[in-house]
Amino acid sequence: MFAIIMAGGSGTRFWPASRQHLPKQFLNITSDKSMLEETVNRILPVIQEDNIYTVVGNLHAKLTNKILGETKSHVIVEPVGRNTAPCIGLAALYARRRDENAPMFVLPADHFIANQSEFIETLKSASEVSKQGAIVTLGITPTRPETGYGYIEINSECDGLSPLSPSEEIKLRQVAALQNCFRVERFVEKPDAETALKYMTGGRHLWNSGIFIFTAKTILEEIEKCLPLLYAGLQEIDKSIGKGDEQNTIDKVYKGIESISIDYGVMEKTSAPIYVFKSDFGWSDVGSWQALYELRENEYDADKNLLLGDVRAIDSKNNLVYSNTKRLIALLGVEGLVITDTDDALLIADIKRSQDVKKFSEK
After folding, report:
1. Is 290 helix (H, G, I), strand (E, B) or coil?
2. Which residue in 6, 153, 312, 315 is a FRET match for 200, CA 20 to 30 A apart?
3. For position 59, which CATH number holds?
4. Which is more confident, 355 or 297?
């Protein structure tokens, strides 16, 4: 089995700690390790280090190699970001050369998983389905009417694991957690609040985790069908691999390929069956300072402050302070704030508006 870790995001919702030179996946915000390190460690129970490929932008190649330098994993460098479809296609070229029929887990580098053992068991079950040539994704049972996530609509009942034969399906049905496997009806864009509430209560919609499982053979065939121009570029890159000029070829090809997500480019266009595992392993995309505050609630002080840094708080509650400086931060009589202190920028905001901090990086 292989793992593809997508580490090219910009993390604008964690400004000012997350910046162009140090985006979210390289920050120690969910533990004392970077989110990239946490992602790698999370999959080691089922993936050998040598089978892990991290795809990262040129700006962060040195940092990634420094973080992962003591492992046997591989780093693939994109000259520019072109969204997830080119990223996944590029990594699949390397996996295909080693075993085109082996399951390939595609994972964002900046997500959090609370129940890692259940996560691993779900991956194992999903890999068994993917071996049959199916496209598989993981959907998260909604716990709130979230408007910031895409959704996956499922059939009320799985209508058979096509293209599996009945005997193959019976065998797979014996795999633990396979009872939570459903046929995907469609992928849904981020909804408004009223629609999100209906999704949560209706029982037929899951949060789109952005985690996929398929073989290199399957996804490259789907890219060829759905995104022929991208596939042509990937074929040009493939011919150069191992011949000493592959990075130059990647740089050249990336200048002319379309920036497109795997969801829009393949998942919403393919005629192939897609399956989703209904999951509940404590997933979070840690999409804002407020999400981080809620995620680390077991670290609150008596006044429900999450204090990450050198902080003193008096008569203050429900605040998040994150600092990577040596400055003392003092709170007096304040409530519901996010305070982020870095060497060159200080953010003070209503924690409920923490999704809006990306406006600063846009400006």
Report:
1. helix
2. 6
3. 3.90.550.10
4. 297
